[in-house]
Structure formats: C-alpha cells, structure tokens
Specification:
heterodimer, A: about 160 residues, mainly alpha, globular, B: 2 domains, 8 helices, about 85% helix
Chain lengths: ~160, ~150
C-alpha cells in the first residue's frame, strides 16, 4: 500500500467521522484535501468516493448546488468504472439532497430504487448511512413505493431543484 | 491502485485471467495469490463484493498453505473490509482482530496502519464514533511515522 495514498484514505475517513460529529469545517478541510490528492493521483475510484462524501457534507451544510455538482461528477465516474455500488450511494445521496431540500416524494423514489440495487448486490445500507436520514429513514424506505429504473432514478436525482 | 488510475479496468481483468493460467501452469502459488487479490480489487471497483470476497478467500487459502504470515494478516484485513460492505459486522470484527493479532507481531507499521484504519471504518459504519476516532488517530499517526522514516 502506497503510504501517501493510504494517508489520504485515512484522512478522508477521518473527515467523514468529523462530519458525523457535526464538526463541518474541519470535516470539509480533510475531505477537500483527500479529494485533491485523489484527483492529482488520477485515482478515479478514490475521487468518486470522496466526491460522494463531500456531496453529503455539503448537503448537511445546506450548500445544495455544490452538493449536486459533486454528485453529478461522481455519477460520470461511476458510469466510466461501471461501479454499481457507486451508483447506489449516489442515488442515496440524491435522496438525502431531495429530503433536505423538502422533496420527500423524490427522496422516497430514489431511496427505494437504491435499496433494490442493494438487494441485488447483497450490500445492505449501513447503520451510519441510515443515520444521515435521521428519524425519517424508516418512513422513507418502508413506503409502499415502486422502484424506478437506474436511468430514471438518476434523471430524477439530476433534476432535483436546488435553487441558485 | 493501478486499475482505475490508468483507465484500464477491463484490460487489467483480462491480464489477471491470463496471469492465472500462466501461474497455474508454472505452479506458482505465491503469484496466484497476488493475482486473486488484484481480481478482488477489480470486483470491488464494480461493486461486486460477493465475488471480491470469493477471490480474497482464494488468496487467503493459498497464503495459509504457504504459511505466509504477512499475507494471511493482509487477507484477513481485506476480508474484514469486504464484510463491512456485505453487512457481516461480527465476521468483519473477527477478521480484523485476527489480522491485527498476526500483523502486530510482525512490526509492520504500514500494514498495521492500513488495517487499523479499516477497522476504524467498521466502528464508524456501526456508529461507534468514539472507538472509530481513537483507532483512526492511531492509524494516521502510524502512517505519518512511516512516511517520515521513508518506509
């Protein structure tokens, strides 16, 4: 394991932890640092992951436009890598964005679609990700909702109105 | 980390499959174990954790056969990591602990740091943030020491 890459990965993980502790400013610094390194090193997988984490942080900080830009870039990388897990986490982040910007209907559609792909991949949503949605998670995921195709869901996510 | 860096994901997979055939012909078990590890990584990048686990187990079995302690510790850490994504948290915990038991005796700070950070990820995943923070700090400090000493 290359030390610089490993240290960046560890810095990124620590940034995510600070996000959970609601230390947004320090979390932002660490995730930005990691993102910058992953880009410089040409690691698409690392960049994609860091963009999703950064997008989630920006949603929590109410920078919806910035978050949407990150998720769109992450989506392009996920398509390039054919990373199905990346697609799932991007859909969940779009659901988080929809929920935080007051659109529970779209959030439910996105989350149900992401959950369907998770079942195919046999990778359940993590306790820490459920926490991102707060108490509304159970209500959003248990709804009697039909899932969309990945393309429809991604179009829905990309189309979320976030204002200027 | 090379597969995605150079945009050669599919080419990489194809080369791994070719390498497996050659290694088997030459009965080169050590190289076969390395190839299985790389194939697991390629699966992870596509979100196929089930297949990744299968490749890691194949690599682990070979390393056990060869009695390669570092390799066994490394594979246990990889299995612990992939189990996080499969939601097997208890199995993940056991794999990380077993891995650390082996690795720490080898005084391999780089691998210990890597394993610790992923063990911290497990704690983060299950929302044990205090424990996760403690482990991350230890991993980062160890990684910095490795960089400073030029390891």
């Amino acid at each position: 394991m290359h030390n610089e890459w490993a240290l960046t990965y560890e810095t990124y993980l620590y940034g995510l932890l600070l996000f959970q502790e609601k230390d947004f400013d320090n979390s932002k610094k660490k995730i930005e640092k990691a993102l910058s390194y992953f880009r410089k090193a040409g690691s698409r997988w690392g960049t994609e992951g860091a963009l999703i984490g950064y997008g989630n942080l920006l949603i929590a900080m109410k920078d919806f436009k910035g978050a949407k830009d990150c998720l769109q870039e992450a989506h392009a990388i996920a398509i390039y890598l054919n990373d199905k897990f990346g697609i799932v986490t991007i859909l969940e982040s779009f659901a988080y964005l929809a929920n935080e910007s007051g659109n529970e209907f779209d959030a439910r559609k996105l989350l149900v679609t992401a959950n369907k792909i998770r079942e195919e991949l046999q990778t359940p949503i993590r306790p820490v990700d459920k926490k991102m949605f707060g108490e509304s998670f159970g209500e959003l995921i248990n709804a009697d909702e039909e899932s969309l195709s990945v393309e429809e869901a991604m179009k829905l996510g990309m189309g979320i109105k976030v204002g200027v | 980390m090379g597969f995605d860096s150079f945009g050669a994901l599919n080419k990489g997979k194809h080369l791994c499959e070719e390498a497996l055939i050659i290694n088997k012909k030459n009965d080169d078990k050590r190289s076969t174990a390395v190839v299985y590890n790389n194939m697991a990584w390629s699966c992870i990048m596509k979100g196929n954790f089930i297949m990744a686990k299968d490749y890691y187990l194949k690599s682990y079995d070979i390393r056990v056969l060869l009695e390669e302690k570092r390799g066994i510790g490394f594979m246990l850490a990889n299995l612990g990591w992939v189990d996080i994504f499969l939601g097997n948290y208890l199995e993940s915990e056991k794999n990380f602990k077993d891995s650390l038991d082996i690795i720490m005796k080898l005084s391999d700070n780089q691998l210990t740091s890597w394993t610790l950070s992923n063990y911290g990820l497990l704690k983060y995943t299950v929302c044990n943030f205090d424990e996760s923070k403690k482990i991350y700090k230890e991993a980062i400090s160890m990684e910095r020491m490795c960089i400073m000493s030029g390891l």
